[in-house]
Protein 1
Amino acid sequence: MDLISEDKISAMTSLEKLRFVLDGVKAGNIVILEGGLTSEEQMKLIELTMSEVNDDFPGIEIGGYPTRKGFLNLKRKTRLTVIGPANMMRTIRKDRDLISAIVSAI
């Protein structure tokens, strides 16, 4: 499990973040991002993941705490994002302040 600080992620470009996350998940890690990803970054991560799905990489499971309403809701991002291999992680419950997931070894 990789716990990534918001300071580390904020120093990266959007594409660097997505590649960093996807490489970690493809290596079999569950990646937890403090500060999370914007909704645009989450969509791009899903697009990037879909292009790399094969027999060895089944895709990702993603969950996050939603942001609080901000000024004009510009560039909203989650407060925390949890991303893991689809064959290892399954979100069973998610609400405003709690994410419950089942994690199993392959």
Protein 2
Amino acid sequence: MSKKLEKFETHDELIAHKQSVFGKYQKFVPEFVYGGIDGAVTTFAVVAAAAGAELGASVVLILGVSNMLSDGLSMSIGSFLSTKSEREQYDHIEAEEYEETLKFPEAETEEIREIYTAKGFSGNLLEKIVQHVVADKDLWVSEMMVGEHGMIREEKHPSANALMTFVSFCILGFIPISPYVYALVTKTELPNAFTVACISTAFAFTLIGYLKGLVTQTNKIKAILETLLLGGIAAGVAYLVGDWLEKLILG
């Protein structure tokens, strides 16, 4: 038995855990991680370029916030359209499968038989399974969608996906520019603002990794190190490109 299951004394406790707050939002982890990392890297690139050009905090804030909102909106729209297209494609193929089971029941039944034969079933047991599946039209089509097309219906609503992407992009994307926001609001000089921004960006990646590990119930240290490494590489590339372009254009 895995250590993950040892803490649950009954099956009901396990089910309750899976239906907890984190369990409900576990399916949105990819959107949160993707949006959060991209948001942090995007605004960090703006900060890096602004730091190289020695621009003021107000300019950094204008560029950072405008990029954060526009890119976050663009990503969320992309996520919405992508998820919507997947659901529409699934619905289209599913409708075709319903028609095929009505028009060609023998051929579709044979396909179910082939699917379960490939899974290792044979003889009387195989025939009982086939008869059970084809007796329920919805189950029949569902099995065809998975066995023939390798498709599972996307349960996440496109709007929910888009919202999670946008929120994580903006929240995590705000962190790299937060030192400049502080400097502007308090009207103080921060000669080491870029260094603080680098540390803040590392904190953003650490937060993403920790929440990822928390929600997915995986090793949090591993999740943090993995996110720091991959996010750090992306942020480093953004800084180097921004610095190179600044020297190339401004001299």
Protein 3
Amino acid sequence: MSRRIVYFALVALVLGSMGATTGCQTVYGPQLGLFATPPIPVSPYFQSALENKAYEHERYERVPILGPITSGGPPVALDPPSDDEIMRALEKAHATEGGVPYLYTAQRDNVRIIVEPIADYVDPPRVYPLIGPAQLHHAHYKCIINYSETKHVGWPIPYTVNDEEAQEVIYIDHNHFHMVGNVDTGPGAEI
């Protein structure tokens, strides 16, 4: 009888060790108990908002630092605002971004964009923290957006409004820095 108990104990030990090594019981990463096991859903609205914020920061909210202004000609600004930047600024000003389905939606068609430079000037040199001596170059643009807009309202009374000659004016500023003085501060450069 004792041999039978030892046999069952050995079988139980082997099965227990096999169950522990299959990977079903192994969890990697921090353990928070019962609160970490279910996945946490994220609304597509918040995910899209975070992606848009990261995209705009990467593309349009940084101020580049260029080399010094060369003598012999007027300093020319960087590229004028792109169509993507203008439409994002328009959507941010109106805070529509498509609306809410079945309640309110707005659609823009036949978009025509006219970009006019307003001002292009350079500030005198000064010392900026974390940059050093530099000049701030300002470029101001007036963007005229002509489009046809269709608004669908679904509640409380469904109706549609068509505006064939909608026009918006948006002002966009592009600023960037130009270094002043000796900009070669790499290895071996004299300071």
Protein 4
Amino acid sequence: MATKNNFSKAVLDLMGLPGNENEPEERMPDAAVEAVFDQNKRLDLNAGWEAEAVPETEFDAERKKFLYNAKAVTVSNTMPIQEEPPATVISRSMVIVGEIMSSGDIDIYGDVKGSVKTDGDIKATGKIAGDMSGNSFTLNGCTVQGNITAHGHVTIGLNTVVVGDIVADSIKVNGKVKGNLTIARMSEFLENALLAGDVRSQTISMSQGAKLHGNVSVALDSSQSEKEFDSIFGI
């Protein structure tokens, strides 16, 4: 009993409550004593954790500074990814009647009866009856009845027949063409080439076996003038 009274007195001292030694000590309930003891124990533990807190290092300070000064990336600051549009494909079983307009490449395996215009390239193995305009042309084993206007190169492969005029930057012919050719730079005629029409180009190359029936005109280079060209012959 004396031990419990002493313990109760110690608890009162920790709480800062006065005690009267002359008066008989009242017995404090055990549950209350344990609650006070646990509360003081938790206070001591929290104080210990605060005392042992890890000080902020130089790395942590720089990291906070970087995060504070960093600017968030917004949608307006990012550039949208521009994907190339897929090629328009006309399958072998399709027959298109009417005008075709596109901003991408066109692959023609079927038949088209109408004009074809695009900013991209055109590949054809089918039959086209109409004028065509585009960047570059690759014609293999197809039949074209209409004029062709190309900003780039035109390839006319074997077993290809073109009836119409062709305007292009350069051309390689290994098929049959009936029409006039106006080529800005190089015209190349392979061994199976057959041209029935006039050709005007800056440079012409012909392989053995190529056949041309028409007038051939080699344009002057842009760096030359007619006067400079005539001076070569002393005119």
